[in-house]
DNA sequence: CAGACTATTCAACAAGCGTTGAATAATCAA
DNA sequence: TTGATTATTCAACGCTTGTTGAATAGTCTG
């Protein structure tokens, strides 16, 4: 019995590449592995996407706009709700993070792989400077200026260092390495995204307040 | 004029491998690149270390013991100084982090590369579970039990999630991607390790207190 | 100095790599 | 049904990879 709506091969290549790049990094994956994972011939990746590096780029571009939009929407929504005095630190961080939790919580493995891939490039000295800026700087700057309003006494550099810590905590959560499971001997599960974010939000918000609330 | 104490070639291979693995990951580096960086023939890596994977392991083993010892010593020192009631959260985190700052601050690039390599495996879904546990679990468990004493009301899972956030913030700092420089347009420098840790310690300590101090 | 052992290089291997041009199949417009 | 366009596979290329065995140089022991 033939499948009515088979996933197009072009899409399956992106899915396969996404999953494998997230697990093994750019150099740890061959086009033949990607093709095999997608059930297509190796030359098809070249036909649709060009060189290996272009395929890598295409994997990012597929979901980038959607992700940034939902995060910006979350920020604007919480700003609208907060009124003139602006949202609190917790509310801003919540808007920054919750769309990612939702993406990780969908049954769709694609989003999990995509976010692990983001974690991979953010932590990579090679890819980080090349790719993170063009993907997220505009978004991040908007969150940072919201944080500045919520923490009017903070120095700029304090805000940036705090954001750096937030970004690191988030990145490890996105990477989803399962190490917290081992360390806690089962008391925490990497797949329990809600628990991860429910802890990350007050943790980082308290950090911002402590470092940024008062001038030295 | 001949150099009196040339660095042995075996050591130079480790140095070169350390630097290249940290920048490009395991699969992003070839033995020929490593050999060229060390100024030796490609077969020499095999002679001294065996397979590529064994060289990778050897890079970790060279500095692991020294690093763990200095961190354990820092913990014991702060415990001795704190007396019977035990050190504070800040003091424990400081003991956990400062030895890394010192290692990054030495003029020696080797330690910087090594710590960036730790960041690479900690964030990698492939290497993380395979390598981090055997390198650091014993050390981490000792810090966690010290944190439990400093936060007697905390639930175990809260401590572990907070540690997860601490580990993430630290990891991004070790990776030293230079992204904070771009984002802050020069107000923060990734090479200003003291500033990084001076912000990270109160940030994460406040997070622990907030999440762990009181039961819900 | 002889000899043994270690360190290092040389040359080559089979396997796998990204990439390509031509051939075939599928889709769609007229 | 034709013809044109797109999608997909096939077969192969030149190159690089990790690894190895034999050859050479260096170092220490007696």
Q: Topology of this structure?
A:
Two copies of one chain form a homodimer.
Chain A: H1 9-24, H2 31-38, H3 42-49, H4 52-82, H5 89-105, H6 109-123, H7 127-150, H8 156-175, H9 179-183, H10 193-212
Helix pairs in contact in A: 1-2, 1-4, 1-6, 2-3, 3-4, 4-5, 4-7, 5-6, 5-7, 5-10, 6-7, 6-8, 8-10
The structure holds a DNA duplex (30 and 30 nucleotides).
Spell out the key features of this protein.
mainly alpha; 10 helices; Tetracycline Repressor, domain 2; homodimer; 216 residues; DNA-binding
Characterise the protein shown here.
Two copies of one chain form a homodimer. Chain A is mainly alpha-helical and 216 residues long. Chain A has a domain at 64-212: Tetracycline Repressor, domain 2, CATH 1.10.357.10. Helix content of chain A is 76%, strand content 0%. Chain A is built from ten helices and no strands. In chain A, helix 5 packs antiparallel against helix 10 (193-212) and helix 6 (109-123) packs across helix 7. The longest helix of chain A has 31 residues, at 52-82. Chain A starts with 8 loop residues before the first helix and ends with a helix. The mean pLDDT of chain A is 95. Chains A and B meet through helix 1, helix 6, helix 7, helix 8 and helix 9 of A and helix 1, helix 6, helix 7, helix 8 and helix 9 of B. The structure holds a DNA duplex (30 and 30 nucleotides).
How many β strands of chain A by DSSP? 0
Order of helices and strands of chain A: HHHHHHHHHH
Describe the main β-sheet of chain A briefly. Answer: none
Helix content, binned percent of chain A: over 70%
Distance between the termini of chain A: 71 Å
Shape of chain A: elongated
Structural class of chain A: mainly alpha
How large a portion of the residues of chain A is in β-strands, by DSSP E? Answer: under 5%
- Mean pLDDT across all residues of chain A, rounded? 95
* Assembly state (oligomeric): homodimer
The fourth-level CATH homologous superfamily of the domain at 64-212 in chain A is Tetracycline Repressor, domain 2
CATH class of the domain at 64-212 in chain A: Mainly Alpha
Instruction: List low-pLDDT spans of chain A.
Output: none
Largest interface: A-B, 64 and 64 residues
Rg of chain A is 19 Å
CATH topology annotation of the domain at 64-212 in chain A: Tetracycline Repressor, domain 2
Number of distinct helices of chain A: 10
């Amino acid at each position: 019995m033939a499948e009515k709506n088979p996933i197009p091969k072009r899409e399956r290549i992106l899915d396969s590449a996404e999953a494998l790049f997230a697990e093994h990094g750019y150099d740890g994956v061959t086009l033949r592995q990607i093709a095999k994972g997608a059930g297509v011939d190796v030359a098809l990746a070249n036909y649709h996407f060009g060189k290996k590096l272009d395929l890598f780029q295409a994997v990012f571009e597929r979901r980038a706009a959607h992700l940034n939009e939902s995060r910006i929407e979350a920020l604007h929504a919480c700003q609208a709700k907060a009124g003139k005095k602006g949202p609190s630190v917790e509310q801003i961080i919540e808007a920054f993070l919750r769309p990612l939790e939702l993406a990780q919580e969908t049954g769709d493995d694609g989003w999990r792989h995509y976010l692990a891939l983001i974690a991979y490039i953010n932590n990579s000295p090679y890819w980080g400077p090349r790719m993170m800026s063009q993907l997220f700087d505009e978004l991040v700057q908007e969150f940072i200026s919201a944080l500045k309003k919520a923490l009017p006494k903070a120095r700029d550099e304090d805000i940036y260092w705090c954001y750096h810590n937030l970004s690191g905590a988030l990145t490890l959560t996105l990477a989803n390495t399962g190490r917290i499971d081992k360390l806690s001997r089962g008391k925490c599960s990497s797949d329990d995204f809600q628990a991860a974010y429910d802890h990350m939000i007050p943790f980082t918000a308290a950090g911002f307040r402590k470092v940024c609330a008062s001038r030295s």
